[in-house]
Amino acid sequence: MTTEGIARAADGAEPEPGAPPPEPAVELLVHGVGGTTPEEMLEDTRTTRITGDGTASVHRRTDDLAERPWDGTTGPVREAYYWCNLTSGNGARALWLLLLPFMIVNLAHWMRPAAGGPRRVHRLYDTLVRLVALSLTVLLVAGACAVALDLVAWQCAGSEACARNASWLGPFAPGEGWWAQPGRRLALAGAVPLALIGLLWWLSHRTWSSYESASPPPRPRPDAGEHAALALPGFWYGRGLVARLRAAHTAAGLLVVAAALLSATGPYDRGPDGSAALAVLGWLLTALTLGGCAVLAGQQFRHGRTEEEPDEGPVPPFTRALPAAALALVALTVLHTAWSRPDWATTGRHPAGTAVFPVLIVVQGALTVGVALAAYWLHRHARSADRGALAGLGGACVALLACGLGGVFTGGVAQRVADWLDPSAAPGEPGAIIAGPPVVLSWEASAIPVLLAVLLGLAVAGLVHVCRATRRLAPHIRDRYGDENCAPLPDRSRRIASAISLASLTDSAPRLVGWISGSCLVLGLTAVAGSLTGDSPARAARDATAALSWTADACQELGSWLMGIGVVLLLAMGRRAYRDAAARRTIGILWDVGTFWPRAAHPFAPPCYAERAVPDLSWRMGTWIDATGGRLVISGHSQGSVLAAAAVWQLDAATRSRIALLTHGSPLARLYGRWFPAFFGPRALASLHQDMPCWRNLWRATDPIGGPVGVTGPEGPPVDLGPLPDPLHYGRNLRRPLPEPILGHSDYDEDPAFAAERAELFHRLTRGPVELPTQPAAPARES
Predict the structure, then answer these.
(1) How many domains does the chain have?
(2) Could you tell me if residue 694 is left (phi over 0), alpha (psi between -120 and 50 degrees) or otherwise beta?
(3) Selection from 724, 726, 764, 721 nearest residue 742 by Cα
(4) Which domain holds residue 332?
(5) More confident residue, 358 or 216
């Protein structure tokens, strides 16, 4: 069929006589983060699932179940890939929000700057991030030990007054009962952190079996450009790495419990009233615990990802045996701790609580500095176009943010539990019946109001920016619609300008992360320095001015309450998400953004949905083209565009030659290219455009998520088309008598440019470009 014949077919005319029959054609739709239904995507109430399961599936209109060629009149067969249930289909998944630090530190692994050079620097960066992730597991379990072993079993159960207030602790109070001995109640309280470790192991194993089990299609290795890391066959199949990391982190959590128990019994056993045999056994168990910690730290240097081929190898026997060995050590430690010590009594805080948390903060700080140095070296050796956000320090800032968030969570929960156990006075203050949590945790709880104040200040700065930008843009909005015969409407112009200004705030995200990370660093150092005094923030400020003393006291009290309220709100959100589909979709948006990447640093992070979605899309495109020899346009909106691009990268060159990519509202360059330059930087996107030249990207200035991809090629039209007019019309007219809405990030398919560009992509796939009516150009994006 000639180009003119294709154009006539697109207009509904009959094809040329004697022309070869047209090939089958499919448009595969991939929705974005907000989620939708197959019926909405296909604009038909009668749809049928043609492949997939209840988690993710491909649907067609029931009337389109039979393959048919694209004749230019009825259009291509449309299919919808529905993946909502990968992220927000089950309300219980919203409880992963409680493990935000794990999710955030996992992102740091993928923020490595795009640079060549010695592989050892890349391995050093990855290893340091894995060590930071391991320290977060240690922090979580240590926080559980601080609550269960220190506050409950050591302090409150060891005080008659506190046990009297908490009646459920009566059997464990000092006296003649079997459970009255400190060692036995400590051994029983150890069940709480052990249960937490078991829950995390079970969740990780369960999601590992469901998500990381989608094998890539058995196709020849893609011959994409050298910079297309996402084209590696094993990129979306990390079963082996997650299994190895899960074994190491589970063993680390168990060793923390053993260390907490041994540090409680050690001072007594080595004292004048202790037993020499128990002291020797304690030293032996301590040596085994320290040896296990050294082994786990060394294991992190060997847990790198294998992306050249799918990581299907079995977990090494030594690594697989680590959790069992650590559990056996915990069992021996529990027996050692529960051994009768009739003269033992507990006072003050747990012996290890004072030193462990400051040391953890210092270690995390040192590791984060190491991540920053490695990242900056890579940043300096990267091409200027591929340099990421924050001078290449995005990964270090995110890792620091994860550590700060983990410390705030731990300190807030510990402070809230201490206030609940001893409501008579602030723990550690005069009149209090328990000493309270470790001092550094009280300082971290006091940091919560300060962090909220920083966030409030950033929000005010953002509001000022929006107001100024709106005033600057509003007088020029009418000029964007020069072909309309309509007088300027001040309110209409102000609303459009406000939408553009609000959308531009996304470009300020690096500064936001930098400010918050810097605040976490300053507050962490302050907490460590304050803990060296041995006093809580309120007591440390008592000798200063009255205003400072009142402020410190208010921050400490408010921080504990805010943390308690925050945990309750997160749990309430999870409960509501189980019952309310709309809430489930809203919470799923947060999960979509944070869990696109595989679990490469922390095995207890929320699972990666892309390890199921990307193979699904690759399998569907590859098998359909192999079976029919037809042409396919994959159309991705928002996060769906990222999945679509990743799936196209996984295909071989012959298959890609029959595929066109249509992205709209895409964060490929604006978010992913900025924060993950090694995978979505300019060189990677240029490589994708070189491998599949049929690519078109639509964007709007009012879209806070999508934007241009900034890729140009020597031949063919540019990839980007935009900014598209939004709203489509400025005022009322004969064809549009009612005001047009400002669409922002949604409903790109309602723009006439969408249908025109889709038709153009199909024409370019078949015979070559066709002249289509040009769309009215909009001015360049203003910030």
Answers:
(1) 3
(2) beta
(3) 726
(4) 215-344
(5) 358
